Each structure stands twice: as C-alpha cells, then as structure tokens.
C-alpha cells in the first residue's frame, strides 16, 4: 500500500492507487457485464481506433438502463460522436473555442484567483476546494459561455447530482437501482438543458460577446449548429469545464503536500509549474475512466472482445502502467516525456486542455506567492470524491501559513 493511501484515506474503489495490479491488462467482468482495460499500450490502441472502439456507447447500454428518448438526447454530445460526424462538429466548436479565446483569459483568471483568496482570508480558515478550486473554474467557464456566474450554486447542484454518486459502474443493476439512477440523473439534466436552451435562444435574438453567441453563430461549410446541439455542447463545457479542473487544482496541491521536496523545488523555480501539473494529472488522474463500444470483434491485450461490448478504459490505471512509466508510484515531474492519458488521446483529445493547464498554472503560481507553505491540516482530514470514475478531493483544508 502506498503512503498517500494511508495518509489521505483514499477510498478502495481507487484501486490503482492501492499498489501495483497483478491481473491481466484486459479482462471481462461477468458481474458488471463490462470489459475493463487497465494497460497503457492497450488503451493507446483503443483510443487510437475509433472505427473499432466507438464513442457511441449508448448503443450498447440495455434500453432499460436508459431514460426515455423524449427526456434525454445525446445529439451533438461531442464525446459520444464518431467520425465522420465528430470531425465536423469538432471543427465547428473549435472555431468558437479557440486557443486565443483561452489565452486571453489569463489576466481574468489571475484577478479572480486573488479575489477568491482575499475573500477566504476575510472569512478565516482555508479549504482549497470550496474557497478556490471549485469556484475559480466555474466562474471562468460561466463568464466565457456568457451565463451568470451568480447562478453557480445551481451548476453545483446539477454537477453534484451527476457526479458525486459512489455507485459502481455496471450494466447489471436491479430494476430498483436502475430507476433510482435514472431519476437522479434526469432531473438535473433536464434543468440544465432548459437553462442553457433559454440562454442560447436569447443569444440568437440578441448576440453578445460570449462563447454561447459564437457557438450559435459558428459555421462550417455553410452549416450552423442546431439548437439542441448548442445546448449539449454547452452542457459538456459547463460540466467538463469545472469538475475536472477543480480536481486538477486540488490534486496538484495534494501532491505538493505529500511531497514537500517537490513543493520546495517548484517554489524556487516557477518555470517547473507546467511539468508539476502534468505529473499531477498522471499521478492522480481526474477523469479516471472512459467508455467505448466495440463495433466488431477485436483482439486486445491477448483476448478477443466480441462486437457490441462496452469497454471501460481505466485511464488512471494506464497512467501507472510500469511498462510505460518506470516507478509509476513515484511522483516525478521530471519524466520526459510524460505521455499520460489524462486528457485522453486521439480524435477526442480534451478540447479544454489548454484552459485547464492555464487555470492550473495561474492559480498555483498565485497560491505559492501568497502562502509560505501549502500544507494540509492533520486535524481536519482531506476527503476524496467517492465516485470510482473520478480521482479528486472534495475537501482539502489547508493550514494558513
Ligand atoms: C474531452 C479530461 C478539462 C472540455 C476530454 C477527455 C478527457 C478529458 C479524458 C476525452 C474523452 C473521450 O475520449 O471520450 C479532462 C481533464 C481536465 C479537462 C482531466 C482537467 C484537468 C476540460 C475543460 C474543458 C474540457 C476545462 C472545457 C472548458 C472537453 C471537451 C471534450 C473533452 C469539449 C470532448 C472532445 C471531443 O470529444 O472531441 N477531457 N478535461 N475539458 N474535454 Fe476535457
């Protein structure tokens, strides 16, 4: 068992943090009905082969596990779309969500970080997640989209309802569990869709200088995004845009607490912040799990996976595969290269990676400026998000210093 597991009481379901795995790189779990991929080269192959490993996973989920089609549509949900449609949508949204749009946010991210830290100082006590790591990315993405950042309590409610459950990932659930799951997901989903649809409709009537307007107006080959697809892309941004970056900030500070020599080093040489962030994403991978569905029979890691099977890609385990990362349980920012899969790989590679990296770099720099030491409070323990598909802290109280 590694030190951090005991020290921070890391939940059992984050099995990749509890020492090396001994099983095969790919295996079928009869209990859940899922194929699990744990090995790095194998997941490289899956993510690089969208023709065999499709992102349209809903196709293989039994109908009774899904909400009715009237309630729920994943149309335009970019993470679920395969080529050739995916390429077209990605081009369209990339034309609105450009690197320049992101780079221009740097001064605002810095100003917000200072504001949030000033407010925390006035209140006294410092809990990194609620004081900074959660509000910062939410305010940034809300301002970017053009929805009121004052509504962030609502966004948190929706995100918590969708992401803070600790249910096991499985295709074999009882009717009762399925009903409860669907209900728990649908309510926030519908509210969020209605909220963003109202804002998108407003932008069609009255354009503003925001990302929602750019999405509504974006055009590729003379075609625009239909309303439901604008809404679904905005949902992806609102959810992906804050939960994962919240985890990135919390996890990076946790790594600097766990490895004080690394904290000393990055304090003395701020140019190493980017490599610390990359290693933090490898070491504590925020988005731990992705899904794909086989379109045909496939050979992977020495086993044969039939067509129409759900394949679970445990990115967090792949990022600790000793075949790719020597001494994977060592936090070593000097890994060069550090080809972690934390932002995915291939055609679906995270579109928000430049924003996540920028927020991480700016916030960490300011935290190091304003705190002589970033240290967790032994009397007020760290808490991890229990959901097995996410690695991140939901509470990280720090000693003021
Ligand atoms: C895709 C992780 C931050 C927007 C992905 C994927 C991963 C990922 C693993 C691949 C999904 C797949 O292959 O099925 C992360 C992590 C983040 C982060 C770890 C922070 C540390 C963000 C941010 C945004 C964002 C800040 C936007 C504001 C997206 C979008 C996609 C995506 C739109 C879909 C791309 C596509 O399907 O073509 N992200 N993400 N992400 N991410 Fe992120």
How would you spell out the order of helices and strands?
A: HEEHEHHHEHHHHHEEHHHEEEEHHEEEE
Radius of gyration: 21 Å
- What is the count of distinct domains? 1
Percent range for helical residues? 40-55%
Bound molecules: protoporphyrin IX containing FE
CATH architectural type: Orthogonal Bundle
Summing up helix and strand content along with how strands pair, one would put the structural category as alpha+beta
Neighbour order of strands in the largest sheet: 1-2-10-7-3
Q: Helices, strands, pairings?
A:
Blueprint: H1 3-8, E1 26-29, E2 34-37, H2 40-47, E3 53-54, H3 85-96, H4 99-103, H5 106-123, E4 126-127, H6 128-133, H7 135-145, H8 152-163, H9 175-205, H10 211-217, E5 219-220, E6 223-224, H11 227-258, H12 260-268, H13 273-283, E7 289-294, E8 298-300, E9 303-305, E10 310-314, H14 315-318, H15 353-370, E11 375-376, E12 383-384, E13 393-395, E14 397-399
Parallel strand pairs: 2-10
Antiparallel strand pairs: 1-2, 3-7, 4-14, 5-6, 7-10, 8-9, 11-14, 12-13
The structure holds protoporphyrin IX containing FE (HEM).
Protoporphyrin IX containing FE is lined by residues 55, 78-79, 90, 141, 236-237, 240-241, 244-245, 248, 286-287, 290, 342-344, 348, 350-352, 355-356.
